[in-house]
Amino acid sequence: MIATLTDFGVTGPYTGQMLAAILQHSEQSRVVDLISDLPRFTPELSAYLIPGLTDHFPVATVFVCVVDPGVGGSRLPLMVEADGKWYVGPDNGLLALVVRRASQCRIRSITWRPKVLSNSFHGRDLFAPVAAKIADGESVQGDFLTNTQIMGCGLPDDLLKIIYIDDFGNLITGMRAAAVDDTSVIVLENQRINAGLIFSECPPGDPFWYVNSMGLIEIAVNQGSAQERFNAGLGDPIAVTGLGRPD
């Protein structure tokens, strides 16, 4: 199986072109467009989504990960084997958390090149065929790198920022569940937000935070939009206190 994770957007030709390129090189592959609205131009935010999004896929899945504002520049193209799954994408911090959290990991810079490689669309011309080759069991030329040689190795384990806003207006943060407990209070725009286990536990219109299906802390408003409630945007900072709920 091959899954794509990009910031290409849900309209326009780019996701379709990349999927077609995968199938052109590997007609038998099953291809899933997992997400096409990763935080645009910001691999340092998108990096925190990728581990959770890919966690439930089986071993040997190949993930094409493209948030690549430096496409055509000096950044390296990477292929990473992490705990039996493969990740293909740019060396700009996008794969840093995948590498760090893996029990076993091998990283290579991709030295193979197609006959035609545009300066602006490595997702289609380079990463897609490499993913197809890996899925088909073909070897791909590359030079081995260490964990500390890739970009983003200095990113924090948990990021106290909003990294994604879904269509419901829910605010996903870069913090994992282990970073807090149910007595923690999240502060956003000088407003205190307590924990809630499930949506139905909170009255309609009330904000709360919870651990989402990816294991990340998410801020929501029951039957409303946390984005509108807090006038929040990508990259906005949050704070965490241990004061818990007031009596």
From TrEMBL:
Pfam families: SAM_HAT_C, SAM_HAT_N
Domain S-adenosyl-l-methionine hydroxide adenosyltransferase N-terminal: residue ranges: 2-141
InterPro entries found in the cross-reference section: SAM_HAT_C, SAM_HAT_N, SAM_OH_AdoTrfase, SAM_OH_AdoTrfase_C_sf, SAM_OH_AdoTrfase_N_sf
Tagged with keyword S-adenosyl-L-methionine: yes
Keyword terms: S-adenosyl-L-methionine
Domain S-adenosyl-l-methionine hydroxide adenosyltransferase C-terminal positions: 161-238
Family: Belongs to the SAM hydrolase / SAM-dependent halogenase family.
PANTHER family given in the database record: CHLORINASE MJ1651
Protein name: SAM-dependent chlorinase/fluorinase
Organism: endosymbiont of Escarpia spicata
Organism classification: Bacteria, Pseudomonadati, Pseudomonadota, Gammaproteobacteria, sulfur-oxidizing symbionts
